[in-house]
Amino acid sequence: MHEKNSQxxxxxxDPPLLILTSLAxxxxxxxxxxxxxxxxxxxxxxxxxxxxxxTRLEELGLIEPMAGVDRxxxxxxxxxxxQVLREVTAEMRRLADVGVARLxxxxxxx
Amino acid sequence: MKRNHxxxxxxxxxxxxxxxxxxxEFLALLEDRLEEAPLTIRLRSSVVIAGxxxxxxxxxxxxxxSSSPTQRRTGSLMVLVAWSIxxxxxxxxxxxxxxxxxxxxxxxxxxxTVAYDTTALAGLLGTLFVVAGAIAAVPGFVRFxxxxxxxxxxxxxxxxxVSSLVFVVATIGLxxxxxxxxxxxxNGGDHLYSGAFLAFALVVVITIGLWTRTGVAVASRIDFTxxxxxxxxxxxxxxxxxxxxxxxxxxVWGIQIGLHAPWxxxxxxxGVAASxxxxxxxxxxxxxxxxxxxxxxxxxxVAMTYRPTRVNA
Lengths: 110, 313
Prior knowledge:
A: mainly alpha; Arc Repressor Mutant, subunit A; two-stranded antiparallel sheet; 2 strands; elongated; B: mainly alpha
């Protein structure tokens, strides 16, 4: 039960956030993105979900397409994308720090 | 080869504009994916769902991506579609309710009668609102004709006309046949007639569906002025209110029948113990609920465009 809950809360698996995180290490096309997300987050995105998120992120100007190699078009993170990713991860870190600190207090109190 | 063809076919679930922009690279991704795993039902359904979701976002049925006018138009058209569904449910209800007063004991007739009359009145009002919406769209329709957009909807229009002709022929045929049958034969006694009646009902549903599709195709191509669009959206909200009244009063009517004359829905003899849940009752309820849900969804999309924009100081 405990392991199941910790699995559930282990990491946020919001597809746009996963894609931004993946592109932070350099441009990638769809398949490379899928593989990278699978590797660093353990999340297997379906092609439909991946491209739904790519569509939203491109519309918001957080990622942009590059010249394609045959039919495979790589994407890169934009300056706004970097800024959003920085803000979101900082917020997540702050929440994680609060969680860790409170757990420490709870452990001492027990 | 067949697999590639299957993958290409999956793309049809996406809107054309999306396919133009992302189609090739999405196909490349699917093909890469299929190098390592087969085209499972799960993968297919995820693509289908994603495609439908993209259509919903693109048309303004979901999210805030589309402009307010697009969202307003889509919301209004959703209500129009909902009302067409409601007409199908309503027709079934009217058929089901034939002679219901005679089946009820006089002490419990009043509530059911008021509920049924309310359903009929709300149905009439909703239809009048839809007609008012059609009249309000006439100036836009004239512009549509002047801009020579008619050929774009010609095919769906022709289908609707053909279906209407079939409907007229079927109505005449069925009415002529019915004249040679007695009441018992007309109400399930003659299996051949019952089958023909079901086929006729299917023709009615298809005809309503095709005309609705034509209406949606035309309205989607009309360049409405902001004022026209506002008027259409107010009428759409009014229709959705009518839908709620229809479904609520129909439910009250159904409950009254279920409590006081449950045999009525099953066509069994009066006083015989029977469940009020006949197939027609369930189907009618489902259709009316679907209609009301769709109408509420459309009205919500319309209402969202009138929300005041929050301005940060």
